[in-house]
């Protein structure tokens, strides 16, 4: 019966993947006490950072390439299905409040669209054509970056996204958790973080998901550091969209400048609440409009703006 050949082929393929491997020594895990299972999981999780560490040179090379393109106005686009797609959407959605990124500057695409964030969309991950259509809706340019994310490294949506983006001249990164993956092979920058078999066979939301979260954190955070979105380890581009973030803004300005609370409030008032501008007002003793101009001329890099201010007649 021909209709069974494809599932058999897929089953054979999955059986070759490290992320899908069965661990017979854990066959009685359900008989352990809860604390014992928790210790097992914790021990498994402790190995993830070491697996990421082995791929740091590849991660850093990808980040430098991403930052170079984003400095020219390019976008960072994550594309994945299921857990991988959700992690990409999560990372993208956290960039505007953390780094004041513009609308559409960091984008998360998940196979099946927004509905797939909370429910399974049947067949979406198997469609490379769907990935191409989602990317075409963004009108990709050569300055954009597409990061395909897939634990198995074979998900058609992620591989299709990277393949389509590369054909359009965009920078491509393939993040997978199996060695020799089609996703890494399809991308300009392949990152394969091999975390080994999961505690629950094939449940790649566990170690593989943790590894992907760590790498995505690095890609977005270090790229934003390279783009001047921080001053030291302070989030000087934070967007004060609620009371907690307004309090954080005041604290960041105080930490960066050592200024008294009243001076911090005056500087933030003079710069419409822009933390980076307020820091420059206080450290360079300039007014709000001058701070804005210096930062524009320095492409948003606070250290460069401070140097320029110090060199003014």
UniProtKB/TrEMBL annotation:
The active site is at residues 94, 125. Pathway: Amino-sugar metabolism; N-acetylmuramate degradation. It catalyses: N-acetyl-D-muramate 6-phosphate + H2O = N-acetyl-D-glucosamine 6-phosphate + (R)-lactate. SUPFAM superfamilies: SIS domain. GO terms for molecular function: lyase activity. Keywords: Carbohydrate metabolism, Lyase. A lyase-type mechanism (elimination/hydration) is suggested for the cleavage of the lactyl ether bond of MurNAc 6-phosphate, with the formation of an alpha,beta-unsaturated aldehyde intermediate with (E)-stereochemistry, followed by the syn addition of water to give product. Specifically catalyzes the cleavage of the D-lactyl ether substituent of MurNAc 6-phosphate, producing GlcNAc 6-phosphate and D-lactate. This is N-acetylmuramic acid 6-phosphate etherase. It comes from Streptomyces prasinus. The gene is murQ.
């Amino acid at each position: 019966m021909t209709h069974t050949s494809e599932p058999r082929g897929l089953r054979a393929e999955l059986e070759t993947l490290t992320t899908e491997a069965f661990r017979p020594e854990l066959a009685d895990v359900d008989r352990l006490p809860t604390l014992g299972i928790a210790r097992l999981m914790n021990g498994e999780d402790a190995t993830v950072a070491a697996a990421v560490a082995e791929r740091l040179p590849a991660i850093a090379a990808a980040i430098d390439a991403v930052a170079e393109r984003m400095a020219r106005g390019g976008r960072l686009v994550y594309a994945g299905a299921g857990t991988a797609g959700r992690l990409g959407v999560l990372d993208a959605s956290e960039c505007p409040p953390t780094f004041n990124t513009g609308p559409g500057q960091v984008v998360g695409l998940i196979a099946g669209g927004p509905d797939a964030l909370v429910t399974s969309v049947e067949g979406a991950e198997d469609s490379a054509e769907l990935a191409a259509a989602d990317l075409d809706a963004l009108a990709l340019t050569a300055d954009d970056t597409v990061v395909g994310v897939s634990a198995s490294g074979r998900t058609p949506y992620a591989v299709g996204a990277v393949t389509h983006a590369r054909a359009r001249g965009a920078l491509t990164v393939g993040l997978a958790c199996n060695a020799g993956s089609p996703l890494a092979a399809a991308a300009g920058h392949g990152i394969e973080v091999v975390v080994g078999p999961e505690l629950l066979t094939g449940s790649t939301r566990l170690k593989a998901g943790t590894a992907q979260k760590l790498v995505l954190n690095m890609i977005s955070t270090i790229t934003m550091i390279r783009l001047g979105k921080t001053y030291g380890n302070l989030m000087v581009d934070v967007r004060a969209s609620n009371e907690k973030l307004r309090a954080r803004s005041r604290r960041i300005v105080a930490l960066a400048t050592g200024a008294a609370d009243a001076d911090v409030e005056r500087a933030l008032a003079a710069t419409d609440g822009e933390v980076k501008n307020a820091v420059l007002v206080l450290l360079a003793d300039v007014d709000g409009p001058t701070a804005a101009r210096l930062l524009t001329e320095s492409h948003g890099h606070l250290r460069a703006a401070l140097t320029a201010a110090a060199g003014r007649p």
